[in-house]
Amino acid sequence: MEIYGKRYIAVEWKLVQYVSPNGRKLIDDWRSSLTTTRTADLDTFLRNMAKKSRWAYPDLAALRGKNLKGLYELRWRSENGVPHRIGGYFAADHEFVMLIGWTHNKKKYDPPSALETLLQRRKNLLKGDATLDEFTILTSRTA
């Protein structure tokens, strides 16, 4: 929160997710494939990120490589320290487009083609072959 004139102003981030040409919400799909612990950690991470006024390292990092310019990864660890990531880009101030989720250990990605898929999904959006939908940040662990 930022203080402005003795009032607290909550900065809220809008998270949107990639929707495939056949209508599948792919971050929701990835979330549902995770274990209960990993799902809870993802939900907590995104809730906390949505409350922050600024996103910075280590929670956010720019992806490296000429073809990955303008793409970022949200970063957290879950279950025995396994690195989890959501790749995407900033569509506007305080709006992040989530294209794909993955895990990795020692350069081994799951799914193996995560970065290639990230690039393809961005191209699909630019061509109008896919759409976006607002991602619901869960506020309880019952869902």
Question: Topology, please?
Answer:
Layout: E1 2-4, E2 7-9, E3 14-19, H1 26-33, H2 36-51, E4 60-62, E5 72-78, E6 82-92, E7 95-105, E8 108-110, H3 114-127, E9 131-134
Parallel strand pairs: 3-7
Antiparallel strand pairs: 1-2, 3-9, 4-5, 5-6, 6-7, 7-8
Characteristic terms for this protein:
alpha+beta, seven-stranded mixed beta sheet, about 140 residues
Descriptive overview:
With 143 residues, the protein is α+β, with helices and mostly antiparallel strands. The chain has three helices and nine strands; from the N terminus they run βββααβββββαβ. The protein is globular. The two termini are 27 Å apart.
Q: What is the CA-based Rg, rounded? A: 15 Å
What amount of the residues lies in strands? 35-45%
Helix content: 25-40%
Separation of the first and last Cα atoms: 27 Å
Query: Which class best fits the helix and strand makeup?
Result: alpha+beta
Structure summary, number of beta strands = 9
Shape: globular
Number of helices: 3
How is this structure best summarized?
The chain has 143 residues and is an alpha+beta fold. Helices cover 27% and strands 36% of the residues. A hairpin with a 2-residue loop joins β7 and β8 (108-110).
